[in-house]
Design a protein that fits this description.
Blueprint lengths: L26 H4 L8 E4 L18 E7 L3 E10 L2 E10 L3 E3 L4 H16 L40
Antiparallel strand pairs: 1-2, 1-5, 2-3, 3-4
Pfam family, one: Ribosomal_L21e
Family: Belongs to the eukaryotic ribosomal protein eL21 family.
Protein name: 60S ribosomal protein L21
């Protein structure tokens, strides 16, 4: 049987609400403060069909370029034939979440500014997590003697 090419084709799990997450949208979603320049995640809410983005943009992160009464304009990068095109789409506020992608960067910026103001020299660069320090393992026996365990030889019981 041939598959369809509709706008919601092959979105059975993508546009399905999670277990015990059904019902009306919380009022805080409508009252979410969004400004131009904010990072937002496009997450389509399947219970509201108005202003729903195309399935390609579901789960993508973009930057707000326009705010209207009930929707936001978002700039999203889309790969097309080996190049990346910046798409500008308008999505209703129900299908948008504040992104947490900048949280770590902003926290590091605050800590770096505090380190600069303290006066002493501090390394502001990020460094990778180092491997664990080596150590010698103490034996668990009472007398400290290591016992070697050998496997029993195979014996046919037939």
């Amino acid at each position: 049987m041939p598959h369809s090419y509709g706008t919601r084709a092959r979105t059975r799990h993508m546009f399905a609400k999670k277990f015990r997450q059904h019902g009306p949208i919380k009022l805080s979603q409508y009252l979410m403060a969004v400004k131009v320049g904010d990072y937002v995640d496009i997450f389509a809410d399947p219970s509201i069909h108005k202003g729903m983005p195309h399935k390609h943009y579901h789960g993508r992160t973009g930057i707000v370029f326009n705010v209207t009464k009930s929707a936001v304009g978002v700039r999203v990068n889309k790969p097309v034939n080996g190049r990346i095109i910046e798409k500008r789409i308008h999505v209703r506020i129900e299908h948008v979440r504040k992104s947490k992608c900048q949280k770590e960067i902003l926290a590091r910026k605050v800590s770096n500014e505090a380190a600069k103001k303290s006066g002493e020299k501090a390394v502001l660069k990020r460094s990778p997590k180092l491997p664990k320090e080596g150590y010698f393992l103490q034996s668990a026996g009472e007398d400290g003697v290591i016992t070697t365990i050998q496997p029993l030889p195979f014996s046919d019981l037939v």
